[in-house]
Amino acid sequence: MPMTTQELAAAIQKGIFKPHIYLTNVCLSYFQNMGGFVARKVFPIVPVPTSSAHYYEFDKGDLARDNMARKPEFGHVSPGIYGKRDKFYHCEVDQVITGVDQISTLDFQRTNAPAVIDPRRSKVRWVAEQMNIHLDRIWAGKYFNPQSWTHVYTGVSTGTPSADQFYCFDNANSDPVTFFNQLRNRMLLAGLRKPNKMVLGANAYIALTVNPSILERIKYQGSEANPANVTANVLAQLFGLDEIVIAESVYNAAPYGAADDMRFICDPDNALLTYTTASPSIDEPSAGYTFTWDMLGNGQYTAVQQYPGETATHTEFIEGLLCTDPEITSTDLGVFLKGAVSESFQAA
C-alpha cells in the first residue's frame, strides 16, 4: 500500500526513508509533436480481413478511349472492351518490446510519485512513439522515394531547366505557382485526375515560405496587426490543392550507445505531389493506399499490450504490434520533386 503523507514524514524523520525529491509539474520528455508525422495523413487507410489478398485495377487507357461509333444499317458496332488486372497486398507484423522492473517501481508506488514519471505510463508512451516513427519510416521508404514514381523532376539552381527539371524553390527565377499549374495538367493527362495533396520536406517548405514569387502574390493581403505570412494553407490555396502536409518527423539513426544522429525521416529537400481519395473507393483511383490488418482480431492494426515475465524476473513487458502494407496503386497519380532546394540553401 502507498505510504500516507504522515507515514512518509515519520519515515524521513527516523532516517528510514531517504527521499529523492522530484518536481511534480515539469519533466523533459522529447516525445514528438504528432503534427510532424505523415504516414496516417496522406493516403487512405484500408482495413482488410486477411493479411494478404488480391484486388482489381481497371485499365486506365480502356476507360478513357472513345468506343462510340456510327451504328451501321441493319447491324451493330463491335462490343467495347476494357480490361482489368489483379494486384496484390501483403501485410506483415512488426513488433517492439520494452520491460518494466516491478521492484524498482515500488519506490514510485509507495511515495505517491507523480504520474509523469510512472515507468508504466512513460513506457507505454515510448512504445506508441516507436510505432509512429516506424510507420513514417515505412511510408518514406515506399512513397517519398524517386524510384517509386514514373514522373520525377529534379531541381536546378543554375542554367535553364530541361523538360524534367525545375528551378529550385529558393532560386530567384522560381515561379512555383506556374510550375504546379503545369504539373496539374500533366497529371490530368497521365492519370485522369488533378493533384489534390502535396507532402513537403522541411527544407522545401521553408524555401517556399520565402520564395519571392509567392511573397509577391500575398504581400497586399496582410496588415500591421496581421502581417501576411506564407503557411501551408496559403500554399495549398495558391497551388489549387486540398491539403499540404509538412514532413517534420525525426528519428535517431545512431545505434544504442553511440552519439545521437538525428535526421528527418522524409528527405527535407524533396516533395511529393499526388492525387488521393479521402477514403477507400471502388470508383476512384488513388496514388496509394495503406492496407492494414488487425493481427489480434480486435479491429486495430496497431496494438499495445502488457504481460508479465517469468515469476523470478519480477518484470512485466509492454509490447507494440503494427501490421500494414503501404502500396503505390497508381504511379501516374504521383509526381516526385527531387532536390527542391539548392545546396547553398540546405547549408544555410
- Span between N and C termini? 57 Å
Q: Strand order of the main beta sheet, please? A: 6-5-15-11-7-8
Order of helices and strands: HEEHEEHHEEHEHHHEEEEEEEEH
Which spans have pLDDT < 50 for at least 5 consecutive residues?
A: none
Percent helix: 25-40%
Q: How large, in whole angstroms, is the Cα Rg? A: 27 Å
Fraction of residues in β-strands:
25-35%
Mean residue pLDDT: 87
Q: What is the number of helical segments per DSSP (H or I, 4+ residues)?
A: 9
Main sheet characteristics: 6 strands, mixed
Q: Which descriptor suits the 3D outline?
A: flat
Number of strands: 15
Kindly name the structural category. Answer: alpha/beta
Tell me what the structure shows.
- By secondary structure, the chain is an alpha/beta fold.
- It is built from 9 helices and 15 strands.
- Strands 6-5-15-11-7-8 form a 6-stranded mixed sheet. Strands 1, 4, 12, 13 and 14 form a 5-stranded mixed sheet that branches.
- The protein is flat.
Task: Please give the structural blueprint.
Layout: H1 5-14, E1 45-48, E2 52-58, H2 60-64, E3 84-90, E4 92-101, H3 106-110, H4 119-142, E5 151-156, E6 165-167, H5 176-191, E7 197-201, H6 202-209, H7 212-218, H8 232-239, E8 243-247, E9 250-252, E10 262-264, E11 271-274, E12 288-293, E13 302-308, E14 315-328, E15 334-338, H9 343-347
Parallel strand pairs: 1-12, 5-6, 5-15, 7-8
Antiparallel strand pairs: 2-3, 4-14, 7-11, 9-10, 11-15, 12-14, 13-14
